Amino acid sequence: MKLLTIIKKELIDQVRDKRTIIAAILMPAIIVPLLLLVIPQDGAGGPDAIAMRIIIQNNDNQLKSLILASYADSDFLKEGTIGSVLNGEADLYIEYTKAEDRFTSFTFHYDSARTNSVISFVHIHDLFDSAFSRLAPGYGGAELRGSSVRSEIESRTLHTLALMLPVFLMVFAASSTISSVIDMTAGEKERLTIEILLSCSVTPMLLIAGKIIAASIIGFFSIISLITGLSFFSQLSPVITGGIPLVGFAGFKCLFLITLMASFNVVFFAAAGMVIGLYAKSVKEGGILSLPVIIAGSALSSGFIGGDPFSGEWIFFLIPVLNFSSLIRSAIFDHYDLLHTLIAFSVNTGWILFFAAAGGYFIKKGNVIFRS
Amino acid sequence: MVLDHVSFVLNRGEAAALVGENGAGKTTLIRILSQIFKPDYGFFTLDGVRSDISSSDIKNKTGILFSGDGGLYDRLSAEENIKYYAELNSISKSSYNRMLEILVQELSLSEFLHDRVSTFSRGMKQRTAIARTLITDPDFIILDEPSTGLDVIAAESVKKIIYRLKQNGKTLLFSSHSTDEIFSCADRIIIIHNGKINCDMQRESYEALYGRDLTCFIKE
């Protein structure tokens, strides 16, 4: 009975705090659908939603015309090999055989780990199936074959890592960093140590920088810990990463770059969390106020789950978290885009500076620091 | 408006008690003197240095003990708390070591110097907080309700510390609700009410005129 009494009291206490309701119930219910609405998922817009990049053996004009009649946006690459599908330059490579000027077989080389490539394969396969069926006038029956450029195990590993790694990295980056920085700021208020700190011969910007860096270090170790743990356990049981161990699949260079990108997002979360912490009266309030940031961070990191890492739109790189989670996803595919990376770094640096300035403003405002 | 035309002079080596009811403006005044708040207008000077011109010079010469639980980091030891404050105020290692040795002896900190603050009693916390305030060997010391919440023995030791600081020629401003502490430690009594100074008198003169009744200047 006492347990029930305690549970009842705690629930009433929490429910009576409107911010808890907003942050814990309303925000998840609204933010995620809203973000998924704003960020269109590739392939969700119907057959014409993607512009297919296709290589046709010998640049056959008859096949080009056939495809363009149904998919006018299609882009035909004049040169390329099956490897072009693997490195993301093309979505589909069409190989064919002819006998007496008639197509006798088609082989569609596609990347089973990439959405655009799979959709292209499905579209073209269906188109050719109806065009070259036995019943189609003027054509005989042609054999259609699909061939993935990746092995099944490689494809499965890519799917698994591309799906989970950016999301987990961002969730841990956000939660560990923000909770630390909230304790370093709102916690200082709660413990009344903020007065002592502000009375010392230290500039507000130095205090802010120190706290952002300290929280970032904690977030950085959280990232390192996640990647190390995943590397270790996937070595023991590769099934957790889809069949191939993380280090064996991605390699040290890729893991280093992923760590670097996630770390930059850690700094972003530290700066954002610091502003929240400086505003919040207590660690509890800071935790509640930071929930939307953590939820939004998690939602944004999954924004490209259905997307193709080779066809990221530049506008998405203007959105913090979404930009780096997308870059991490691309890195898993061994694809690096310098322009997108520079945009993402610039955008996040801008936000970090903005948050630092906001923190500097808050720390000088007595009515914010000693808000009661 | 929390404070209204507050103006007073503290002489070197003087100990002034800041008296007033809760919400009178004592803490706000202390926060202004600690350079945490900036007044809407006005300034104060310490050894001729204006607060609105060179705040860091004043911060270096001022030691503050805030009210409450001492403002200590629970997860740090007493020494770590003291050292952190000293380092933030750019105290040299030799000065730190010298002052720490003195303070450990005077405040009897040796028994718990390396223990975590979370395990401390209120009195131990207050002694640690006082040590932290004095580690920079400040000329001007502000103590905000230094004995509030302390037991009789701990409060008595705070009184002794104030005496010693006075003997060492330090300038002191302390707020207090304890009549005994005020009349036994202060040279001056400054009474603040509704953000205004209602009384600023030498302790002997005050006592001669009003006895130990501190409420006469707090009435509306």
Count the E strands of chain A.
Answer: 5
CATH topology of the largest domain in chain B: Rossmann fold
Helix and strand content put the structural class of chain B at alpha/beta
Low-confidence stretches of chain A: 43-48
Radius of gyration based on Cα positions of chain A? 26 Å
Mean pLDDT of chain A: 84
Largest binding interface between chains: A-B, 16 and 23 residues
CATH architecture tag of the largest domain in chain B: 3-Layer(aba) Sandwich
Rg on CA atoms of chain B, Å: 17 Å
How much is the average pLDDT of chain B?
A: 88
Sheet of most strands of chain A: 5 strands, mixed
Compute the number of helices of chain B. 8
Q: Would you count the extended β strands of chain B for me?
A: 8
Work out the count of structural domains of chain A.
2
Q: Work out the helicity level of chain B.
A: 25-40%
Helix-strand pattern of chain A: HHEHEHEEHEHHHHHHHH
**Widest sheet, order of strands of chain A:** 2-1-3-4-5
Secondary-structure class of chain A: alpha/beta
Oligomer: heterodimer
Strand/helix succession of chain B? EHEEHEHHHEHEHEEH
Question: Could you walk me through the main structural features you see in this protein, from its secondary elements to its overall organization?
Answer:
The complex is a heterodimer of chains A (372) and B (220). Helices cover 65% and strands 8% of the residues of chain A. Chain A contains 13 helices and five strands. Chain A has a five-stranded mixed β-sheet with strand order 2-1-3-4-5. In chain A, helix 2 runs parallel beside helix 10, helix 6 runs antiparallel to helix 10 and helix 6 runs antiparallel to helix 11. Chain A starts with a helix and ends with a helix. In chain A, 43% of the residues are buried. Chain A is α/β, with parallel strands linked by helices. With 220 residues, chain B is α/β, with parallel strands linked by helices. Chain B has two domains: 143 residues, P-loop containing nucleotide triphosphate hydrolases (Rossmann fold), CATH 3.40.50.300; 68 residues, no CATH class. In chain B, 38% of the residues lie in helices and 16% in strands. Chain B contains eight helices and eight strands; from the N terminus they run βαββαβαααβαβαββα. The radius of gyration of chain B is 17 Å and the shape is globular. Chain B starts with 14 loop residues before the first strand and ends in a 10-residue tail after the last helix. The mean pLDDT of chain B is 88. At the A-B interface, helix 7 of A face helix 2 of B.
